[in-house]
Amino acid sequence: LEQAILNDTSISATEKKAVVNARRGQGKFKSNLEQVESKCRLTGVSDRRFLIASHIKAWSECDTNAERLDGYNGLLMSPSADRLFDRGFISFDDNGDVLISSRIEVGLLLELGMKELTNVGPFREKQRQYLKFHRTVIFKT
Predict the structure, then answer these.
(1) Are strands 52-55 and 98-100 parallel, antiparallel or unpaired?
(2) Phi, psi for residue 118 in degrees, rounded to 5
(3) Cα dist. 20→8, 55, 117, 136 in Å?
(4) Contacts of 139 (CB under 8 A, 6+ apart)
(5) CB neighbours of 69 closer than 8 A, spacing ≥ 6?
(6) CA nearest 22: which of 56, 72, 68?
(7) Would the pLDDT of 107 be above 70?
(8) What is the pLDDT of residues 24-57, one digit of tens each?
(9) Is the dihedral of CA 77, 48, 120, 128 positive or negative?
(10) 106: closest CA among 91, 116, 94?
(11) DSSP secondary-structure letter at 137?
């Protein structure tokens, strides 16, 4: 994928570098995301050393490089929360209510460090667009 980006003549060298760095978990995506989110909404962890810059609409599902780098297309998450979200075991509705898949037991969520999962606060309009995709394509009902 990185080689395909580097060979793409339709984007500038600067954008290529930013996209490749974002893919590696460094660079512009995380920086953009940190402008939108400050902590894991599920666990409350705010120490950046323990947070993953997680895409809401997966990197591979994005239609454009702009979507891949968009800070609104992400959440800062602790490792367990990231894994649950990426695999579709949890999602969120637009007002922040936590959606839990019928394919996972609530007890396991507690064991993984998820405190009482009810509402994590409302999302911004741009985040809601990506969350709609997550609920439709990724989330396992």
Answers:
(1) unpaired
(2) -120, -65
(3) 12, 15, 35, 27
(4) 88, 90, 91, 99, 101
(5) 18, 19, 22, 28, 29, 32
(6) 68
(7) yes
(8) 655 788 899 999 999 999 989 999 999 999 999 9
(9) negative
(10) 116
(11) I
